[in-house]
Amino acid sequence: MATKHEQILQHIETLEVGSKISVRQIAKDLTVSEGTAYRAIKDAENKGLVSTIERVGTIRIEKKKKENIEKLTYAEIVNIVDGQVLGGREGLHKTLNRFVIGAMKVEAMMRYTGAGDLLIVGNRTRAHVEALKAGAAVLITGGFDTEESTKQLADDYKLPIISTSYDTFTVATMINRAIYDQLIKKEIVVVDDILTSVDRTFFMKTTDQVENWYELNRETGHSRYPVVDENMKVHGMVTSKDVLGVERTITIDKVMTKNPLTVNAKTSVANSAHIMVWEGIEVLPVIDDSNRLLGIISRQDVLKALQMIQRQPQIGDTIDDIVTNQFAEITEHGSKEEVYECKITPQMTNHLGTISYGVFTTIVTEAGSRVLRSYKKGDLVIENLTIYFIKPVQIETTLSIHPKVLEVGRRFGKVDVEVYNEGHLVGKALIMAQLIDR
After folding, report:
1. Which of 61, 120, 295, 321 minimizes the number of CB atoms within 10 Å of its CB?
2. Residue that terminates a domain, selected from 187, 213, 237
3. Residue 186: is its pLDDT beyond 60?
4. Rounded CA gap, 108 and 186, in Å?
């Protein structure tokens, strides 16, 4: 039987997109406490089912598809620009195609404005009206208002009119930053992108017998299965080792490995690889917040995804990308020692103008990873990093990085990294990594 929390989430999913949601109303409709209703609504917000906007409330929104992750809803725009909704609240759940800055005559402005757009403009009432008629929402900068008839038109067309105190340039920068962050998120592959969904996953019930494992093994050719109860909650994993030599009439819950390691849909593939390599696991169950089975991922799925990531063009540069883009190999011809250079740009510094600790960590891990890959082709995950010496490094400095492999085996590598500035030692680190065959 579903819990109260799960019942509320199911209820929210059935609501029409654009519906307003309140803690008090949910508590009354489903006869639950307001505390339970509040926690469930917050969970729904994390799942992308609802959006909470100041001075408007919480509304049901359409959950974005993966391919539209880089697009924003008008509700998200309100939160990004600290805006106030003047009209057209019922359209806050809609997704915008692009934004247009209205810095020209209205006739010219309308040639660039179409359905699903967001027109960013000042207190030009005629432009507000024409944009709404063209199917676009309006964002008024400078904290200005608009006429009541325009607000009524926005309500009729279900297209939001939003007012913000920021100027046009600042607003455009803020929205661009939000879209850029979404693009970076899109680039990071998570378990949800590669999992084998539950409708295509073979699993066993806690009440099944060992004999059922043999039947499933003959049918599928697989030997590892998640074990779930009648509510699809994961209780264990069963493999060929668990059933070997066991009486076939014994139930699976007596032989399975209980409390198995699991991941959720938002876990990154890189983190999943780390878990699987470190624990020696071939298959991981994927669960939701209620421990219900969503599917599985295999080690093969993870390795394919990691290799795919390395071949993809960069969409949005993270700090790690900025650091590694500055890397250059300067190893002298005939030398066995690999040496790298990295210039410290303004983005890599802290408020004092010296290299940040996070950037220094990235520099030594990148150097260590590169030198290990030259010894053994394949992927790796950093298992342990110890930085045991670091001095301040000024902005616009070029560092010389000397990684030295201390030990490398079939599954394990150890690297010592020394960092120099104009011949002076400024940092030392020791890296241990798990190696993964491709």
Report:
1. 321
2. 187
3. no
4. 34
